[in-house]
Design brief:
With about 200 residues, the chain is of the alpha/beta class. The protein is built from four helices and six strands; from the N terminus they run E-E-H-E-H-E-H-E-H-E. The chain has helices at about 65-70, 100-110, 125-135, 160-180; strands at about 35-40, 50-55, 75-80, 120-125, 140-145, 190. It has a six-stranded mixed sheet with strand order 1-3-2-4-5-6, sandwiched between helices. Helix 3 crosses helix 4 (about 160-180).
């Protein structure tokens, strides 16, 4: 177990069990989990579900401040914060296989089905890659600096077949998202890329 290594603070992955009390928390119990659901109101479904995919590194509630601002404006926003403990661009599943697209898709669909299409999918960097992989699960997807081709960007450790499936999933999901949004105002996927 990673927890048994002196000073281990990275690569937690999906280690079983509870972290030992002596290990400082990285981020509100999220460093060893792949998701946290935060409802706006306990016992009620919010107006919108924000699915927020984390960037590379230990899982953090990266989109917590924007969610809080939206709630402060009066929007009943539920948030599903999603992390990839393996840092594999959401391509690896908890069994260390390369079925992450299916795993995270099922995870998001399980929450999204309660919102009748009122789902925002968002992420930055590695999280933006996941936002595009799963764009079709939301009414709108926002991706800030995604890595869309892992052959040329940060993905050399990912097996070639998984990199190919990542590209195909992005093309399929974004294409589905844009086709569904063609008649609707504001739908689709938006990508922001740095210089």
């Amino acid at each position: 177990e990673a927890f048994e290594l002196p000073g281990a603070r990275i690569g937690f992955g999906w280690n079983p069990g509870t972290p030992p009390a002596g290990l400082p928390a990285l981020t509100d119990r999220f460093a060893t989990s792949d998701h946290i659901f935060e409802p706006a109101t306990h016992g009620a479904t919010g107006d919108v579900l924000m699915v927020a995919f984390s960037a590379q590194g230990p899982g953090v509630q990266q989109w917590h401040a924007p969610a809080a601002a939206l709630r402060a404006s009066g929007l009943r926003l539920d948030a599903l914060y999603v992390a990839d403990p393996s840092n594999s661009f959401f391509l690896q599943d908890p069994s260390a296989g390369w079925a992450g697209l299916d795993y995270y898709g099922m995870l998001v669909r399980g929450y999204a089905r309660r919102y009748d299409g009122r789902v925002l999918v968002i992420g930055s960097s590695m999280g933006a890659t996941a936002a595009l992989q799963h764009a079709a699960l939301g009414a709108r997807a926002l991706a800030f600096a995604p890595r869309v081709d892992l052959d040329v960007s940060h993905g050399s450790f990912v097996p070639a077949d998984a990199r190919r499936r990542c590209r195909e999933a992005i093309a399929r999901s974004v294409g589905t998202c844009h086709a569904a949004a063609a008649g609707a105002c504001g739908g689709g996927a938006a990508v922001a890329a740095g210089a």
